[in-house]
Amino acid sequence: MLNYTFMQNAIFVSIFISILCPCIGVFLVLRRYSMIGDTLSHSSLAGITIGLLYHQNPILGAFVFTSICGALIEFLRIYFKKYTDLILTIVLSLSVGTAITIISSGKLHANADSFMFGSILTVTKFDMIMVLILSIISVISLILLYHQMIYIVYDEEAAKIAGVKVRLINYVFSILVASAISISIRIVGVLVLSSMISLPVATALQLEKGFKITLIFSIVFSVIDIMLGLFASYYLNVAPGGFTALLSVAVLILVLIGKKIYINVSKIHSDQNEIPC
Q1: Per the UniProt record, which residue ranges are transmembrane (predicted)?
Q2: pLDDT class for 275, splitting at 50, 70, 90?
Q3: H or E segment to which residue 90 belongs
Q4: Within 13 Å of residue 85, how many CA atoms lie on the same side as its CB?
Q5: Which of 47, 112, 148, 264 could anchor a disulfide with 62, C-beta 3.0 to 4.6 Å?
């Protein structure tokens, strides 16, 4: 299996996905913006169709269009401060409408299905270069903005008072989300991409540790989910995105069960220690 070039390419991309997605996702989840990830993942489909329509790299098209949509969400927050869900509906309508219009026009002489469901056969050398460049830029940006983003996560208003350039950082973060989404499309697919951003973080949060520990375990769970999904989908001959999403849910359930058992065992042990001799 590992002798095949397409599997080597898929593993290369999957490593970057499993690291970058939870790094972005932990900030989205803690800010209660996980649905923004879902909206932008669907926005990437419009970028893909635009890229294919003009015979450009679809990943590049997804990155550009998703970045624009991310910036649009941040811009619309000025006018719809109390209606975040309405903003997402506007952007989702724009994106899905654009994608459906292009696909149904008959001018798209390429199949977009592999981007919707994910495919390990479609990862090219150029895609790998794009993934490498976008990942390096994203990780460097996260490192440089780490402390400011932590401040914004816990109290955005206090961050503004402290002099943090909240709006600028939010725009930059939107581009980082677009980057994570665009590099994940080939393997995971548009329809379940948001699960790779949110579910490993949701699993790590069950450990109830500090931010750094949560981030580390988010990456660990993401690596487990994506790598198992990739190898299992190869042998089962199914789309890697859907099966990876199922595995992510399964891992989350196992952690929840393990946590419940641990709490019950600890409670029993504590009760036994309290029994007088």
Answers
A1: 6-30, 59-80, 86-105, 126-148, 168-193, 213-232, 238-257
A2: low
A3: helix 84-104
A4: 0
A5: 47
